[in-house]
Write a structure and sequence with these properties.
The protein is 27% helix and 33% strand. With 281 residues, the chain is α/β, with parallel strands linked by helices. Strands 1, 2, 3, 4, 5, 11 and 16 form a 7-stranded mixed sheet that branches. Strand 13 and strand 14 form a beta hairpin. Helix 7 runs antiparallel to helix 8 (254-266). Residues 1-5 have low confidence and may be disordered.
């Protein structure tokens, strides 16, 4: 699949081989177009330098909410000239199955590695079964598996796809609650894009009462359903925040065009960071 008729797709995914981002990337794109990237920040940096044509990174987990470092990178990108062309092109929703894994010779688990989101999802299960084990947050589940492979007495909460390297100690981790992660593909327009259904905006507001409510009322009056909202501090501007929202709607629908025009008038800064379809993979 090509990013455009002129440039081939070269997609960087968050984490190392075996990460959930890697699984999502393999389900959506040809394997020979994929490259790993250890951090979200590095993925965005390599996208902007042109080393990757596109990146695939997690944006939200059903248990732990929006992935803030991904959101921060999107907000920074929106403030650059590149933000006009490097936008969210797709969202990919994938069910997640977690397992506790360790080396085959492990008898007692004293520490557990994982990304923050799996720890959030499995908090109750870990409290019941491994209350004394040290919990160590790392960049990705694939990194967690690599660390557990090196250390006796260590385990990782990772995806079932890592079972060839580690022994499954339990596949019931957090199983009482269904889990799903949403990933986004960021870059220039993809070839043969599907019809967009969602739009994400980044905006800054006048520092006065009711300014956020005014934006939400614009969406509500036009029956544009809000699906995500996040606020992040604006560096150097105390008690002021930058917002990212996602809602159902896209051009050329009249209600979308009207809403965007109105929001532009009542914000200090506004950027569309993508109108895109949401796929289940």
């Amino acid at each position: 699949m090509a990013a455009s008729s002129k440039s081939p797709l070269k997609l960087g995914y968050f984490g190392r081989a075996g990460s959930f981002s890697h699984v999502a990337a393999e389900r959506r794109f040809p394997k020979d177009t994929l490259s790993e990237c250890p951090t979200v920040e590095e993925a965005f940096a390599k996208l902007q330098t042109g080393e990757f044509s596109h990146i695939l990174v997690p944006i939200e987990n059903a248990s732990s909410g929006i992935i803030t470092n991904t959101a921060d990178q999107l907000m920074r990108l929106a403030r650059t000239e590149a933000g006009a062309t490097l936008q969210i092109r797709e969202a990919l929703a994938m069910r997640i199955k977690l397992a506790l894994m360790a080396r085959a010779d492990t008898k007692v688990i004293t520490k557990i590695y994982s990304h923050r989101a799996p720890f959030d999802h499995s908090r109750d299960w870990l409290g019941k079964h491994y209350p004394l084990a040290e919990q160590i947050i790392v960049e990705s589940t694939s990194e967690a598996a690599s660390l557990a492979l090196k250390e006796k007495g260590a385990a990782a909460i990772a995806g079932m796809q890592m079972q060839g390297r580690l022994k499954i100690m339990s596949d019931a981790v957090g199983s009482e609650v269904a889990n799903q992660t949403t990933f986004i593909v960021v870059g220039p327009a993809l070839a043969r894009p599907a019809k967009p259904t969602h739009t994400s905006l980044v905006f800054e507001l006048p520092h006065k009462p009711g300014s956020l409510v005014d934006v939400l009322h614009v969406l509500s009056r036009r029956k544009l359903n809000l699906t995500k909202i996040l606020s992040r501090p604006i560096p150097g501007r105390f008690e002021e925040y930058r917002f990212m929202i996602e809602f159902l709607g896209a051009a050329p629908a009249k209600e979308f065009v009207d809403a965007l025009a109105r929001i532009k008038r009542i914000t200090d800064f506004l950027a569309v960071i993508g109108s895109y379809p949401v796929r289940r993979i």
